[in-house]
Amino acid sequence: MLRGPIGVALLALGYAACGPAASPNKCMYEGWAGQCQLKGLIKVREMESFPRAFAVFEVTYEPLDTESPLSPPASRFEVMAPADNEGQLEAHFQQYATAACRIDPSSLEACKEGKLQVQVPAFTPTQVAPDAPQQLGCKQLEARGQVNPDFNAGQVLEVEFSFDADSGAPGPDATAKAQQLASLIKSKPGWECIAITGFITFGESLSLAETRARAIKKLLLDQGVDASRFVTFAASIGTAAAEDRVARPEERRVKLKVLIEKK
Q1: Binning pLDDT at 50, 70 and 90, where does residue 104 land?
Q2: Rounded distance, CA 74 to CA 72, Å?
Q3: Based on C-alpha coordinates, what's the Rg of the chain?
Q4: Greatest Cα pair distance in the chain
Q5: Is 139 helix (H, G, I), strand (E, B) or coil?
Q6: CA separation for the pair 116, 118 (Å, rounded)
Q7: What is the pLDDT of residue 230?
Q8: What CATH number has the domain spanning 139-261?
Q9: Would you tell me the crossing angle of helices 174-186 and 206-222 to the nearest 10 degrees?
Q10: How many percent of the chain have pLDDT more than 70?
Q11: Among candidate residues 180, 127, 133, the one with its CA nearest the CA of residue 157
């Protein structure tokens, strides 16, 4: 079997020719050349070869002028390609569904048996890109293009963390609350992404809201919760009326909400 770059055979292993009897020293197909049509492309077996598996296909070409008694019969040959390139191999031969073909003039035996040479370029596979890794945790938000997710959806967790004015340090009860919350989150593997949102009140810097959110995230990470399950946000609580813009202690807090839950 004659092979190309990866073992593609282009010399047909034809079936025995049928037709009028020929003399022992004369070939009835001598000098024959014409056009052949792809009649079959069938996977016949698979070959395991570490680190890649290979697929073997039987390819059949038949002369277009099948009515002429001087036309050779259909020829079959095998080609091999990496299993992950099967689609490329099929597309390659479909591209040459009609191709020039001839009887090998250099071999009397090939001529007598009607073995065709089909002018199909050797198949050279291109590297198949691996499947994109599955996004886990809060990275799914980025994969979905949700830079600003919908905070109206999802489950709000009951545990909240409070802060002193102009402070990013959690209150004295924060560690105990974080332990309680971490146990709950660990028991809920379906909670794949949880938003930790820090809030400020009137007169505080928005950057302080992010500081507060990150402080609570650190407490939860210290309890062994995977960082991929969290995303932090900063938010401010404003009021519509200018005369009502006053600092409110209850607004200095961090809240958590489940953004992605797998049932």
Answers
A1: confident
A2: 7
A3: 36
A4: 114
A5: helix
A6: 6
A7: 93
A8: 3.30.1330.60
A9: 60
A10: 77
A11: 180
Question: Which residue has 């996004």 as its token pair?
Answer: 135
From CA 248, how far away is CA 209, in angstroms rounded? 14
Element (H, E) at 43: strand 33-49
Q: Residue 228 phi/psi, 5° resolution?
A: -65, -15
DSSP H helical segments within the chain, as ranges?
86-95, 108-113, 139-143, 174-186, 206-222
Nearest to 118 by CA among 66, 70, 78, 68: 78
How far apart CA 169 and CA 40 sit, in angstroms, is: 73
In one-letter notation, the amino acid at residue 32 is W
Scanning 36-103, the segments in alpha helix (DSSP H) are 86-95
Cis peptide before 51 (omega within 30 of 0): yes
- Contact of 251 with 145, CB cutoff 8 Å: no
Residue ranges of the domains in the chain? 13-118, 139-261
Structure confidence by residue, pLDDT tens digits, 107-139: 888 788 888 899 999 998 886 556 556 778 888
Say how far apart CA 84 and CA 55 lie, in whole Å: 9
Place of tokens 């995977």: 226
**Is the pTM here over 0.90, yes or no?**
no
The answer on pLDDT for 144 being more than 80 is no
Measured CA to CA, the distance from residue 186 to residue 24 in angstroms comes to 84
Q: Which two tokens stand for residue 161?
A: 């963390």
pLDDT computed for residue 21 by the predictor: 44
Torsion (CA) 191, 137, 262, 221 in degrees, nearest 10: -20
Q: Rounded to whole angstroms, how far apart are CA atoms 96 and 128?
A: 22
